[in-house]
Amino acid sequence: MRKFSEIQEWKYQKKKKPLVFLQEDIAKRELLDESLEKFLQKTRVEYRKGRLRTFKEWIKMVRELLDELD
Predict the structure, then answer these.
(1) CB-based contact 68:38 (threshold 8 Å)
(2) Whole-number Å distance between alpha carbons of 58 and 56
(3) Cys-Cys link to 58, which of 21, 38, 50, 53 (CB 3.0-4.6 A)?
(4) Whether residue 65 has pLDDT greater than 80
(5) Burial, 68: exposed, middle or buried (Cβ in 10 Å; 0-12, 13-18, 19+)?
(6) What is the pLDDT of residues 13-62, one digit of tens each?
(7) pLDDT of residue 2
(8) Cα–Cα distance measured from residue 24 to residue 41, given in angstroms and rounded to the nearest whole number
(9) Is pTM beyond 0.85 here?
(10) What is the C-alpha separation between 52 and 59, in angstroms, rounded?
């Protein structure tokens, strides 16, 4: 079992680590944000249309929306 002081020291060291982001990570995050925004926008449009769909049509629409996240 760890001592309380060891746990406190570990938490302190974890907080002190500088955040380093690689350029690739930033680019991936921006790409993910863009695809997420596209997904949300298309979802809102489909929701506001208020169109009644069959289950098969709804599944197809949801599949297309989820493809935006990839």
Answers:
(1) yes
(2) 5
(3) 53
(4) yes
(5) middle
(6) 655 555 566 677 777 777 667 778 888 999 999 999 999 999 999 999 99
(7) 56
(8) 26
(9) no
(10) 13
Cα–Cα distances (Å) from 29 to 40, 43, 65, 67, in that order, read: 16, 21, 19, 17
Residue whose token pair is 């746990």? 7
Domain boundaries, the chain: 25-70
| First CA to last CA distance, the chain | 44
29/60 Cα distance (integer angstroms): 27
Residue-wise pLDDT tens digits, 3-14: 666 666 666 665
**Tokens 């506001």 sit on residue:** 48
What single DSSP character describes residue 69?
T
